[in-house]
Structures are given as structure tokens and as C-alpha cells.
Write a structure and sequence with these properties.
The complex is a heterodimer. By secondary structure, chain A is mainly β. Chain A is 0% helix and 58% strand. Chain A is built from no helices and 11 strands. In chain A, strands 2, 4, 5, 9, 10 and 11 form a 6-stranded mixed β-sheet that branches. The N and C termini of chain A lie far apart (41 Å). Chain B is mainly β. Chain B is built from no helices and 11 strands. In chain B, strands 2, 4, 5, 6, 9, 10 and 11 form a 7-stranded mixed β-sheet that branches. Chain B is globular, with a radius of gyration of 14 Å. The chains are: A mainly beta, B mainly beta. At the A-B interface, β4, β5, β9 and β10 of A face β4, β5, β9 and β10 of B.
């Protein structure tokens, strides 16, 4: 069964304190791993797509990496506005509809 | 680009009534749209895949007669919660992918509909 597990469930950081969020996955033929940001009461906002092990993507203070078993979202020198829930999702090769399976998310709080 | 609009953003209804939620892709066409449900502090659970011009595909455990999905055009899918009950109260979110994009391109999400059944 395709599965996505994110850790930690919640993370509190001081402004400027770098850290990493983990997304472990078990999937039959990975077609893509996606990172989204979700603010309270809003829909997920797309951040990155990673397609193959070794791939890396960067955007401002965020950097996503991918191995054959997990992905990391590194946050460098975070600011309070980075506070949100970060969701990881996978698309399995077994899916012909292209649906995404989501992890539970990591809720990040950055204190000034 | 790639904007998905969902309406209404919130709705309160009485138990036993039906509620319709609309999902529109504003600047692209989508042959497939996905409906998710999210309970407080939980992740997104896929309810069904909406296919333009054909029947929706429901995930295991989701009642197709309770959650009616219609995908009548390449830019509009609707979810109707029939005979709503308090346990149907949740955050419903739709998503779509550009029909001309590759199959594993990102899904774009609407801003969700908060349904409260009293």
C-alpha cells in the first residue's frame, strides 16, 4: 500500500534557526513527490516537485531534496512568515488518474 | 496562472439538507479534478476523482450516493453533499491539473469550503 509519513508532527523554531522536515514514503513506482504549504483555512499552495532520487529544488529559504525512500524540506534562517503546515504528497506509478497521496503534514511555527 | 476557484468558501446548513460546492479552473482546462476532505489538524484525504463527461471514481469507504459529483465541463466540477449530517462537517478542497500538462505535473488547489452542518 502506498504510504507517506511526515515528521515531526510539529516544529517550533526561533527566527533564524535552520531545520529540516522529513517525508518518508513507500510507493509503487514514484512518479513525483510534491511539497505544498498550507495556511490555516486555505488550500495547499504548491512549492516543489521532485521526480527522481538526487534531485534538488530551491526557492528562497526552502530547499527540497529526494532519495529513494524520503524527501527533506530544509528551511534556512526561517522567518515568522514561514509559519504554516507543510504537506508532502506522492503520485504513484500505479495510479492512472494522477491522484496524490498526502502525509499528515508538519506544522511549523517560527517565533520572532 | 493555474488558478482554481472554489465556491462557497464557507456554508452552514441544517441537518438533512443538501449543499453544492463548485470548483472552477479559471485559466486552464481540466479533464480530471480531485475532491479532498480535511478534518481539523489532519491531512487531506482523497474522496473522489472527477472525470469530465463521465462518472466519478470514488475512494473506498466514500458513499457515492451521498457525495454526488458532476464534471459537466472542462472547467467546472461540483460536489453535492446530500442529506448532510453533523458528521459531514469538514473542510472540502478541490484540485485540478492542466489537461495539457504532463500526467505528473503539480495539482493546483482551491481555497476550500468549510461546511458546518447543524
Amino acid at each position: 500500500e502506498d504510504q507517506v509519513t511526515q515528521s515531526p508532527e510539529a516544529l517550533r523554531l526561533q527566527e533564524g534557526e535552520s531545520s529540516s522536515l522529513n517525508c518518508s514514503y513507500t510507493v509503487s513506482g514514484l512518479r513525483g513527490l510534491f511539497w505544498y504549504r498550507q495556511d490555516p483555512g486555505k488550500g495547499p499552495e504548491f512549492l516543489f516537485t521532485l521526480y527522481s532520487a538526487g534531485e534538488e529544488k530551491e526557492k528562497e529559504r526552502l530547499k527540497a531534496t529526494l532519495t529513494k525512500k524520503e524527501s527533506f524540506l530544509h528551511i534556512t534562517a526561517p522567518k515568522p512568515e514561514d509559519s504554516a503546515t507543510y504537506l508532502c504528497a506522492v503520485q504513484a506509478g500505479s495510479s492512472n488518474t494522477g491522484k496524490l497521496i498526502f502525509g499528515q503534514g508538519t506544522t511549523l511555527q517560527v517565533k520572532p | 496562472g493555474a488558478v482554481v476557484s472554489q465556491h462557497p468558501s464557507w456554508v452552514i446548513c441544517k441537518s438533512g439538507t443538501s449543499v453544492k460546492i463548485e470548483c472552477r479552473s479559471l485559466d486552464f482546462q481540466a479533464t480530471t479534478m480531485f475532491w479532498y476532505r480535511q478534518f481539523p489538524k489532519q491531512s487531506l484525504m482523497l474522496m473522489a476523482t472527477s472525470n469530465e463527461g463521465s462518472k466519478a471514481t470514488y475512494e473506498q469507504g466514500v458513499e457515492k450516493d451521498k457525495f454526488l459529483i458532476n464534471h459537466a465541463s472542462l472547467t467546472l466540477s461540483t460536489l453535492t453533499v446530500t442529506s448532510a449530517h453533523p458528521e459531514d462537517s469538514s473542510f472540502y478542497i478541490c484540485s485540478a491539473r492542466d489537461r495539457w500538462g504532463i500526467n505528473n505535473s503539480p495539482l493546483h488547489f482551491g481555497n476550500g469550503t468549510r461546511l458546518t452542518v447543524t
